[in-house]
């Protein structure tokens, strides 16, 4: 017979994972009673261990859903909190401590919480039962308790007793039963006493004849009857000693036997098992029907939405990582030496522009350069310019540039829809990328600096290289010129040509003599902020005009016969800088490629595999898969269908037997 309850408890726990639909719930025994009625003592007597939270101000603040599993063939006794995943706990003091912590975690302001704590206890000494321990009713208010607590507890108990559950109403025998909060509450939802069992505790505290009379309780008769117990706490806890003490109490008072009264914890246990089994058995047909309906629905959904396609969290993770690696691979193919060279050269071009601007283009004597470039002063200046490029930390900045580009690219690769669901994994992969690149940084920088060292002293070039240099220098001047011109144009259109011309003339008039210094606001006629802006722009326009004419002069020089051959290097510094930049770029990129890029392209996919695939445990895999809402939904329905199928199978096998 007991097999039924066991199976149904399994079914009950399975159904709980499917959903909270109350139609799909098998009945349980809910334990209600006033504070200090002896509720905990009764439960502990049934379990045979002390495990419930105690303490003067310790009110149970959350329902404890207790599943007792009779393990016939094992001597092992242990508890499990399935929600916490702590594994087997054999020390019942630890169970008690965990329950206390979970209770205390409910914030003071909330008083009680309706979210249940699940606890399973496996033991050869317990019957198969499901019990829900609820907070005890408060009868007298203590000053330390919030006034709403009493109502909140009553409401929570109502929630549990109104369902199709069996009510275990615990009352102390030394208190007038008419005052029992538990009986009052149960009468409201079960007026005929069909599903209520009364437990009278502390039988030892009243006269045996009175006790026997109370067990009949004619004021509120119960179909399932009242049972009297003595569960006085002993120093050794609620074990066999307690049961023996109880037994000897009832034996030593023949009144109980004579009246054929139901007394003793073993009687209570048996009654509970029997009642629960009957109740569950009665609900069986209804449950089979409901499960069938739910299963049909789940099957339908699975077919319609997912075409019966099964997925597993593992395969989802593998797919996500594969698609990441594919995209990464595609990137490594398209980000080769030419692309890295382009990036480094663009950086160096900017630098050449800055250097030429500073050393040559803003020097008034530059106009004369083609005529006087044989002068050793200019040759020296060329050497200095040269050095300022080679010594500007090309190694460090080019490596940094490539690292920045790579990290940016990784962000792009990881900004797909899929990884938007997995911010943690995304951050982790970026971290790996960063770590790998950082670890190569110094070696690469040193390598690059070493190999470009010779260029700090001289640069040799073929005529063809020189021609290329001239071409690129021309392009550099052209683009600088173009940007100057567009800037000038925008200034003109902001203020109007005429006003700008007037302002320029004004500046020229007062600043003709370079000794005189800048003109004063009064001289220029600046009266407002607008005027001030106008004159600032006029100055900028003057500078641009001068710059443009210099650049045009330089373009002329570069195109002249003088610059057509490499023998007149100091006449054409821009070209020589370009030749140098080209050599630096080639050399730097060669080493950056070997030391940094190749390593990165090789290591990152392996790192991703190791840390985000092979290293993940089942729980992390589930977490990852469930981060994606569409996968979560798919898994949910699939899981639901599988669970319901399992339940159905169990139920069918029961039906066949009974
Ligand atoms: P709860 O607040 O309803 O859980 O009540 P407890 O189980 O903590 O019991 C309250 C007090 O009554 C404790 O001091 C118990 O030792 C005591 N008690 C419980 N059952 C009995 C009993 O059958 N006889 C006697 N004499 N005391 C009991």
Pick out its properties.
8 strands; 658 residues; single chain; alpha/beta; binds guanosine-5'-diphosphate
Helical proportion, percent range: 55-70%
Mean pLDDT: 89
Radius of gyration: 44 Å
Q: Which descriptor suits the 3D outline? A: elongated
Which helices and strands occur, and which strands form pairs?
Layout: H1 2-18, E1 29-33, H2 39-47, E2 64-70, E3 78-80, H3 92-104, E4 117-123, E5 129-133, H4 149-161, E6 166-172, H5 181-189, E7 196-201, H6 208-216, E8 226-228, H7 240-252, H8 254-258, H9 265-306, H10 313-334, H11 337-361, H12 369-372, H13 376-390, H14 394-413, H15 417-420, H16 423-452, H17 463-495, H18 497-510, H19 521-524, H20 529-559, H21 573-614, H22 618-627, H23 629-657
Parallel strand pairs: 1-5, 1-6, 2-4, 6-7, 7-8
Antiparallel strand pairs: 2-5, 3-4
Helix pairs in contact: 1-9, 1-23, 9-23, 10-21, 10-22, 11-13, 11-14, 11-21, 13-21, 14-16, 14-21, 16-21, 17-18, 17-20, 17-21, 18-20
Structural commentary:
The protein is α/β, with parallel strands linked by helices and 658 residues long. The protein has helices at 2-18, 39-47, 92-104, 149-161, 181-189, 208-216, 240-252, 254-258, 265-306, 313-334, 337-361, 369-372, 376-390, 394-413, 417-420, 423-452, 463-495, 497-510, 521-524, 529-559, 573-614, 618-627, 629-657, and strands spanning 29-33, 64-70, 78-80, 117-123, 129-133, 166-172, 196-201, 226-228. An eight-stranded mixed sheet has the order 3-4-2-5-1-6-7-8, with helices on both faces. Helix 10 packs antiparallel against helix 21 (573-614), helix 10 (313-334) packs across helix 22 and helix 16 (423-452) packs antiparallel against helix 21. The model has no long low-confidence stretch (mean pLDDT 89). Residues 33, 35-41, 136, 201-202, 204-205, 230-233 line the site of guanosine-5'-diphosphate.
């Amino acid at each position: 017979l007991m097999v039924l309850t066991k199976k149904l408890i399994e079914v009950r726990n399975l159904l709980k994972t499917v959903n909270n639909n109350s139609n799909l719930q098998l009945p349980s025994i809910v334990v209600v009673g006033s504070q200090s009625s002896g509720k905990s003592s009764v439960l502990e007597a049934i379990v045979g261990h002390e495990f419930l939270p105690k303490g003067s101000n310790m009110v149970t603040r959350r329902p404890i859903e207790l599943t007792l599993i009779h393990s016939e063939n094992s001597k092992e006794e242990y508890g499990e909190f399935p929600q916490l995943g702590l594994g087997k706990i054999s020390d019942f003091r630890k169970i008690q401590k965990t329950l206390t912590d979970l209770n205390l975690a409910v914030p003071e302001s909330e008083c009680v919480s309706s979210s249940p704590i699940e606890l399973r206890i496996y033991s050869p000494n317990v019957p198969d039962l499901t019990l829900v321990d609820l907070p005890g009713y408060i009868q007298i208010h203590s000053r330390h308790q919030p006034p709403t607590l009493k109502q909140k507890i009553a409401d929570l108990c109502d929630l549990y007793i109104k369902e199709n559950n069996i009510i275990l109403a615990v009352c102390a025998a030394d208190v007038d039963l008419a005052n029992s909060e538990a009986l009052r509450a149960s009468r409201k939802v079960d007026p005929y006493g069909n599903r209520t069992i009364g437990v009278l505790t502390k039988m030892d505290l009243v006269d045996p004849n009175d006790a026997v009379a109370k067990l009949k309780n004619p004021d509120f008769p119960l179909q399932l009857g009242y049972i009297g117990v003595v569960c006085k706490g002993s120093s050794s806890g609620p074990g066999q000693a307690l049961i023996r003490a109880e037994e000897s109490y009832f034996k030593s008072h023949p009144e109980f036997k004579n009246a054929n009264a139901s007394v003793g914890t073993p009687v209570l246990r048996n009654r509970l098992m029997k009642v629960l089994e009957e109740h569950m058995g009665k609900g069986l047909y209804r449950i089979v029907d409901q499960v069938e309906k739910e299963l049909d629905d789940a099957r339908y959904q699975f077919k319609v939405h997912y075409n019966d396609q099964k997925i597993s969290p593992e395969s989802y993770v593998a797919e996500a990582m594969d698609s990441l690696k594919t995209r990464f691979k595609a990137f490594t193919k398209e980000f080769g030496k030419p692309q890295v060279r382009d990036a480094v050269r663009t950086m160096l071009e900017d630098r050449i522009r800055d250097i030429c601007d500073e050393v040559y283009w803003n020097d008034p004597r530059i106009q004369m350069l083609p005529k006087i470039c044989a002068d050793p002063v200019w040759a020296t200046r060329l050497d200095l310019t040269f050095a300022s490029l080679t010594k500007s930390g090309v190694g460090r900045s080019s490596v940094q540039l490539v690292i920045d580009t790579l990290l940016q690219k990784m962000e792009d690769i990881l900004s797909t829809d899929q990884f938007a669901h997995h911010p943690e994994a995304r951050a982790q992969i970026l971290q790996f990328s960063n770590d790998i690149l950082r670890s190569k940084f110094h070696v690469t920088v040193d390598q690059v600096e070493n190999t470009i060292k010779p260029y700090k002293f001289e640069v040799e070039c073929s005529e063809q290289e020189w021609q290329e240099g001239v071409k690129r220098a021309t392009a550099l001047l052209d683009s600088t010129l173009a940007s100057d011109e567009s800037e000038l144009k925008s200034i003109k259109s902001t203020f109007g040509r005429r006003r700008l011309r007037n302002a320029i003339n004004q500046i020229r008039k007062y600043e003709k003599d370079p000794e005189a210094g800048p003109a004063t606001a009064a001289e220029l006629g600046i009266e407002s902020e607008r005027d001030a802006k106008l004159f600032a722009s006029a100055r900028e326009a003057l500078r641009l005009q001068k710059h443009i004419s210099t650049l045009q002069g330089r373009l002329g020089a570069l195109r002249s016969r003088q610059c057509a051959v490499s023998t007149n290097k100091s006449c054409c510094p821009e070209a020589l800088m370009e030749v140098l930049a080209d050599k630096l770029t080639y050399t730097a990129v060669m080493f950056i490629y070997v030391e940094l890029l190749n390593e990165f392209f090789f290591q990152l996919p392996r790192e991703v595999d190791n840390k985000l695939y092979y290293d993940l445990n089942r729980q992390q895999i589930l977490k990852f898969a469930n981060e994606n809402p569409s996968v979560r939904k798919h898994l949910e329905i699939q899981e639901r269908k599988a669970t319901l199928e399992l339940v159905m199978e169990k139920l069918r096998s029961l039906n066949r037997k009974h």
